[in-house]
Amino acid sequence: MNEIIIATKNPGKAKEFQAFFSEYNIKAISLLDLSESVEDIEETGTTFEENAALKAEQIANLFETPVLADDSGLVIDALDGRPGIYSARYAGEPKNDKANLEKVLKELQNVPDTDRTARFVCVLAVAIPGKDTIFKKGHCEGKISNDPDGSNGFGYDPIFIPDGYSKTMAQLSSDEKNKISHRKNAITQLESWIKDVQQSL
Fold first, then answer.
1. Are 197 and 134 in contact (CB under 8 A)?
2. Under 8 Å CB-to-CB from 111, ≥6 apart: which residues?
3. Closest C-alpha to 83, from 48, 129, 59
4. Assign residue 81 a region: left if phi > 0, alpha if psi is -120 to 50, beta otherwise?
5. What is the DSSP string of the chain?
6. Which residues are catalytic?
7. What per-residue confidence (pLDDT) applies to 78?
8. CA–CA distance, 156 with 159 (Å, rounded to integer)
9. In 10 A of CB 132, how many CB atoms?
């Protein structure tokens, strides 16, 4: 495997994966780098795994090349796992980070600190034409704060306090966040898979 498509139009996310794959001499290109545009794939799955696989498999079949897709979100125990797969559009269309976290805080209004446990989840799916799709899953455990704080990061970062910290994810530096993030944990698991693939060649 010397090239892989990252199923994202997010330059920041693409850059993160490109840096990772470059260590293994694998060229990673995002959907933004392709000469033909790819329509957004409807995420009709009911789990992170299903949604990640939908994206990865459809694009892998289209270009007949390995594709990595991820699906991630925030899972809150007191809300029965919501927002979960609906994290990006929890407050409805169009996508609005501020409205999403305000909705979460409102729903947790009377929930005590001890019951505000939550985790960020990231599922990576690697689809290779003719082979079974590979899944890697990463978590970052923590709890939901009472008020948003911090200006780094995006999404629910201002209301998520990772375990072992007294600050929200949005108050951490990029380096601090990258060491503990759910995506980092999923990528670390991908690392052992790539080493196995390269050793078997």
1. no
2. 78
3. 48
4. left
5. --EEEE----HHHHHHHHHHHHTTT-EEEEGGGSSS--PPPP---SSHHHHHHHHHHHHHHHHTS-EEEEEEEEEEGGGTT-BGGGGGGTT-SSP-HHHHHHHHHHHTTT--GGG-EEEEEEEEEEE-TTSPPEEEEEEEEEEE-SS---SSS-TTGGGEEETT-SS-GGGS-HHHHHHH-HHHHHHHHHHHHHHHHHHH-
6. 71
7. 98
8. 6
9. 8
Pick from 8-12, 32-36, 77-81, 130-134 the range whose average pLDDT is largest. 77-81
Q: Are 41 and 92 in contact (CB under 8 A)?
A: no
Across 122-148, average pLDDT: 96
pLDDT digits (tens, 9 = 90+) for 48-63: 999 999 999 999 999 9
* Average confidence (pLDDT) over 8-33: 88
Tell me how far apart the alpha carbons of residues 177 and 84 are, in angstroms, rounded to a whole number: 20
Which token pair is 70? 């991820």
Residue 60's pLDDT is: 95
Taking all residues of the chain, what is their mean pLDDT, rounded to a whole number?
A: 92
pTM of the model: 0.89
Task: Name the CA dihedral angle for 57, 157, 164, 118, rounded to a multiple of 10 degrees.
Answer: -60
Do residues 159 and 76 make contact, with C-beta atoms less than 8 angstroms apart?
no
Which single residue is written with the structure tokens 């949005």? 170
Higher per-residue confidence, 153 vs 150 = 150
Closest CA to 72 of 49, 98, 100, 103: 49
- Give me the pLDDT at residue 152, please: 87
